[in-house]
Design goal:
The protein has one helix spanning about 250-260, and strands spanning about 5, 10, 25, 30, 40-45, 45-50, 55-60, 70-75, 80-85, 90-95, 100-110, 120-130, 135, 140-145, 145-155, 160, 165-170, 175, 185-190, 215, 220-230, 240-250. It has about 260 residues and is mainly beta. A hairpin with a 2-residue loop joins strand 8 (about 70-75) and strand 9.
C-alpha cells in the first residue's frame, strides 16, 4: 500500500530470437496507486499491572459498517488480544505473566483488507506488579497470660485484597488466617505464664498451652516484636511484612521477684 510504484519492462530473447535480437530494458515508469488510507485513533493507559485487565478504546476509519477490520494488541512481541471491529471499539486486555515488568512497547495494529491499508499505533507502557499494602492494628501493651489480638486490612489501589495468606507471629508462636471479602483479617496469639510442655513438678499451674499459636516468656517485662506477613498472588515471589514492638508483662514473675526481695 504505497502511493506510487515504479515499473520497468525487460525483454530477453528466447528460442529463435536468440542471436538476432539483443536484450533490452525499458525506461522506468511511475504509476500512481489508488487505495483507501486507514486511520487509527487509540486511547490506552501508560501503566498496567500483570494479571489485571486494562481497557483499550479507539476508532478505525473510514467507518464502514459493512466491513470488519482485524485489530491486534501486542506488548513487545507478545500478542495479548485480537478482535474484529467496525468503527469505534473498546475492549479489555489481560496482561499475562509472560510479559516482563518494566518499560515496554504497546502496539495496536489494524490488518490491511482489500483496498484498505494497514495502520498501527505504538506507545511506551510501564508494566508492573500490583503493589499490595497491609494496615495492621496491634496492641502496644499485653499482660501474660493473655491474648494478643491482631487485626487489619489488606488492600491495593483497586480495593480490598481477599486472596492473601496472612501469618501473624510472635517469637516461636504463629497463627495463619485469611482476609474476608472486604480485605479485613483477625488473628489471636496467646501468651502464657509458663511453657505449656513444662512438667507438673515445675509447672505448678499445669498450664496446657495450645501448640503453635501460643508463646511463653517468664521475664517480668519484655519488649517483643509482632510480625504480620501477607503472601498474595498480586505480588508473586515477594512477601509483604509489617512489624511492631509490644511490651509484655508477666505478673507471676514480678510476684516471685518481689517475694524473694522481701
Amino acid at each position: 500500500y504505497k502511493e506510487s510504484m515504479t515499473v520497468t519492462a525487460l525483454y530477453t530473447p528466447i528460442d529463435k530470437d536468440v542471436g538476432y535480437y539483443l536484450a533490452c530494458k525499458s525506461p522506468r515508469a511511475t504509476i500512481s496507486t489508488m487505495f483507501s488510507q486507514t486511520g487509527l485513533e487509540v486511547s490506552a493507559p501508560s501503566k498496567i499491572y500483570i494479571g489485571y485487565p486494562f481497557t483499550i478504546s479507539g476508532e478505525v476509519t473510514p467507518d464502514n459498517e459493512h466491513i470488519n477490520r482485524d485489530v491486534r494488541v501486542l506488548i513487545n512481541d507478545t500478542v495479548l488480544h485480537e478482535k474484529s471491529v467496525s468503527g469505534r471499539f473498546s475492549f479489555e486486555v489481560m496482561p499475562t505473566d509472560e510479559i516482563p515488568t518494566g518499560l515496554g512497547v504497546l502496539t495496536i495494529e489494524v490488518s490491511p483488507l482489500e483496498h484498505y491499508s494497514a495502520a498501527s499505533v505504538k506507545r511506551n507502557i510501564n508494566v508492573s506488579l500490583l503493589p499490595v499494602y497491609i494496615n495492621a492494628i496491634m496492641p502496644s501493651f499485653v499482660l501474660s497470660p493473655g491474648d494478643i489480638e491482631v487485626s487489619g486490612r489488606v488492600y491495593s489501589e483497586f480495593g480490598p485484597v481477599n486472596d492473601a495468606r496472612i501469618n501473624i507471629s510472635l517469637d516461636d508462636a504463629s497463627v495463619n488466617t485469611a482476609p474476608s471479602s472486604d480485605g479485613s483479617f483477625q488473628g489471636t496469639i496467646k501468651t502464657c505464664l509458663l511453657p505449656g510442655d513444662a512438667p507438673p513438678a515445675t509447672n505448678i499451674f499445669y498450664i496446657n498451652a495450645p501448640p503453635g499459636n501460643s508463646t511463653y516468656d517468664f521475664s517480668p517485662v519484655s519488649i517483643r516484636e509482632i510480625t504480620v506477613t501477607a503472601d498474595t498472588p498480586q505480588s508473586p515471589g515477594s512477601v509483604l511484612e509489617v512489624q511492631k514492638q509490644v511490651i509484655t508483662v508477666n505478673p507471676l514473675s514480678i510476684f516471685i521477684i518481689l517475694s524473694v526481695i522481701a
